[in-house]
Amino acid sequence: MAHTIKDVSRLSGVSTATVSRAFSNPESVREATRAKVMEAARILDYQPNAIAQSMARQTTEHIAFLICKHDSSILDEFYAGICDGIMRVTKDADYRLLVSTADDWGSTRRNQVDGVILGGSATVGMISGYVRQNTKIVLVNHELGGFDFPRVVSDEQTGVRMAVEHLISRGHRKIAMLAGRFSPYICEVRFNTFCSVLKEHGLPIPDRYVRICDPNIPDAERQAERILIQQDPPTAIFGANDVIATGAMKAAIRLGRKIPDDVAVIGYDDSRVCEALEPELSSVHTDCTRMGELSAKLMLDLLSGNKPEKNRFVIEPKLVIRGST
Amino acid sequence: MAHTIKDVSRLSGVSTATVSRAFSNPESVREATRAKVMEAARILDYQPNAIAQSMARQTTEHIAFLICKHDSSILDEFYAGICDGIMRVTKDADYRLLVSTADDWGSTRRNQVDGVILGGSATVGMISGYVRQNTKIVLVNHELGGFDFPRVVSDEQTGVRMAVEHLISRGHRKIAMLAGRFSPYICEVRFNTFCSVLKEHGLPIPDRYVRICDPNIPDAERQAERILIQQDPPTAIFGANDVIATGAMKAAIRLGRKIPDDVAVIGYDDSRVCEALEPELSSVHTDCTRMGELSAKLMLDLLSGNKPEKNRFVIEPKLVIRGST
DNA sequence: GGTTTGAATGTAAACGCTTACATTTATAAA
DNA sequence: TTTATAAATGTAAGCGTTTACATTCAAACC
Prior knowledge:
The first copy, chain A, has helices at residues 5-12, 16-24, 31-44, 50-57, 77-92, 124-132, 156-169, 184-200, 217-228, 242-254, 273-276, 288-303; strands spanning 62-68, 96-101, 115-120, 136-140, 151-154, 175-180, 210-213, 236-239, 264-266, 283-285, 312-315, 318-320. Chain A is of the alpha/beta class.
């Protein structure tokens, strides 16, 4: 067994209270005393037991990041980015980070964390448990209708608008979209915004220019091919995300179309794959690391008892123009 | 404040011991009693306090995954994969997972976890602290010379051998390598194995067929171009990882070389980018999720007091042949 | 009905800290 | 030196569980 505060107390000849203070509130003990304590601790290789501290202090200095997305996880580049941002902040603040993909996480061992950052689509059911236990909540990349939790979201409308208007500014009039079948809310926003922007510019959206595909390359490739081989094909394709846009590019290349001359392609997310493609894929960048950092800072703020000045933080995406447009 | 076991005890009219038993050892209390307890707990919305349990049981049911790699993190596809594997297992076993990129993690709050899985290159210094505290240790994707910790590693020699012999079997005699400058140990193994396999087959390795590059696409592209534009260029390039191989492909495409006819390219890691490229990139697949799962299972084994039958588990990589070769 | 026995429950001492409050010690002022 | 005051330290009661041990209860046997 590791040594306890009592052993240090005995060896250094001071009370356990003083040992405790020497560790967690050094200014409150005399220099000489602190030295004695630390020396004893060194000899015994003592470190305060974190669990006992949590027990006594009623706080764990743990927060959790929960990825609430059906079939997705830390493997998702976007959530990994958020997680990375959260890790940076929690590390600096000396908080520990628990990570889980979670539907039902809330039901078990809830009171082990001071706060939980929910990424993806949390449900009211998940959240109510935390609320009852007074566990702090921050939402990231998601809004929960009817609630005003502190949250960090990305301005997808603007992102899509930038992508589409970029195509238009390049002279494209026949623009197709490969809509997605992944996160329902996101897919809806991206498609709806695509439509409104085109309408605003007086451009038509014939049905044959729209296809819905699964978020994997082969399906995107199939659907893109269908769009491209028709009579009077579009001169540009907007993919609902980079994976889908990648499929579009592959289809175009296989059909012998030149990118961007015969057909331009743009994606969304600015994932790593964009720079790997030839030509490189234009896309819309969302700074997910910053989203993570911001949500973690919000959480720390909450935990230190501050109310943040506002509850909704919006990250503005950036258009990244590359060779594909 | 949340209710405690005492509140439940009072409301249900039994002792706290019985409440505790009703929760953590249901068979040991009479059906009727358990029902009373559970009803009281339901009314009070009681849940056992996990911290107090950890305190009393002297176990946290937390394990940590530490990514010990200088400039890398959960953003790294490979470590994300390991992490995903660990998460699956810990989730099933109802353990919580702490994740951190760590150099110095060991120094602080060490005793909050029952065990730690170290990914990347842990140092003896990091480990000694855990050993003293009797925290269980498992290594993944790394060996620690001179120690025999339970560990899961990938058989890189075989992986490289498969890649190179695949090129040879395709008739290539002039094979170049873009060696890497990332993880020193890995880079060394990959390069050395490349050389020995070529030697075994009596093939030359002229200096002009080897270049070392940083693990980013632009640099790989530059170096690959240097290799390709020389007189008597290689007919195949082995990239030390997929990023580097991607750069090689881009260089070849830009130079107007046909892949795989003018030059074949193969990578290592089988990351997501492989299937995005056109043609798709052949590579060597390491099942990192399985490495994660295995290391987590090893850890759970250790924590339940079993000695694993052996300490070194080797994952065999698989060759994935695609259009680029 | 009285024993015996095993199961169910209760009592109370840990687990290793923190912290309000009490006490002692050092410092400054008179 | 005495006294007032502030700083340092000590005492002991929590924090919310678990669990060894003691006690009670119920069923089964004689």
